[in-house]
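Researcher: Next entry: Glutamyl-tRNA reductase (Halobaculum gomorrense).
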Amino acid sequence: MIDTGVIAGVSVSHANASVEEIEAAQTADSTTLVSALLAREGVEEAFAIQTCNRAEAFVAADDAAAARAAVEEFAPEVREGAIVHFDHEASLRHLMRVAAGLESLVLGEDQILGQVSDAAEAARGVGGLRGGVLDDALSKAQHVGKRARAETAINEGSLSLGSAAVELAERETDLAGASALVVGAGEMGLLSARALDASPVSRIVVANRTLRTAEHIASDLDTDSAAINLDALSAEAAAADLIIAATGAVDHTVTDEMVAGAGETLCIDLGQPRDVVPDAGDERVAVRDIDDLETVTDEARERRSSAAEAVEEMIDAEFDRLLEEFKRKRADDAVSAMYESAERTKQRELREAMAKLEAQGDLTDDQRETVAGLADALVGQLLAAPTKSLREAAAEDDWTTIHTAMQLFDPGFDSPPAEIDSAHSADDATDATDGGLEHLPED
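Model: Predicted structure:
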């Protein structure tokens, strides 16, 4: 695939949207969205990520208009002010910021890096990432995310949404001797259970659809713990003082009936879609969601602000490096296509010319070499100026010129390149003689 893609992206996240709006923007799973985006006209690559804090989609297309059109109808039920659109460069920077934890509700949290990686693999599994510009952008984002955590203190005293939930609970109720119920045994449930294990609660129950997974988490805790299947959730919910829910199930897992007679109970809902019925129980039952964690997470953000500045500088440098890589690659792709097209024409004309000359009398090896050298020199000299122009176009972000060149010189543009009937290769673009590329500046 010839990589001349332009990226466009769209986001509904905690930065501008409510829990309800994020929920409305999400689909059944990210791969369904990726497949739908790939079906849009002009889209070559697609990626989507859905977490409790965000629903985002990115595509790469041949031109900016096609890319924008592909994500234009994202989250149609969400108000305009909650949706953020990104052009090519903004998408590149945003993906790096997300992976580094700068866009997280909990600044610098570690879970998002794994979520980006998982979402990339899921997209790749349905053909959404194919080694093109979007694939490269996600690889760079993951690289930046790893660097940010290895080289700065952005995740020092690591605070996850799970631990933020426990901190919020400690502010609102006395956890000494309390019974806690964790609903869900995924990553968020695991982090919540571990945070509770370090708190004053006296008992932790982990509930999950797959009992074995819940048992694995419970067995790793020092606090008195037990594991149950979701079928036994009602009895445990009625007995719990604190419920932290994070299953990601489509329907509510903690219902009004479960906590109707539970007495004083604090429910913290980390699910997306929501796990707890918003008005569950009576006045003695308090339900909190991700929006309520902002006070806790804002304090964590303040503690990590200096590290965030260092990560911002890192992203600036990596962003500039990535843009230069893309520009150089796009220019090289266009130049290679141009030389491949010229090479095909040269070889065809050489064969015809040699055949005519041979018909007029035998040619010596020196004569054949002279004719072939003349053809090489003509190609090199004729393409030297357009090569320079294409590199300048890439440096100036003139992708219209690049795209036009690809269409002119590569009839198979957007399809697998044709076999070149030549002993030469596309690398001849860097080895042309007599006025060829070796005489041209790199920029």
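Model: Note for the record: The radius of gyration is 29 Å.
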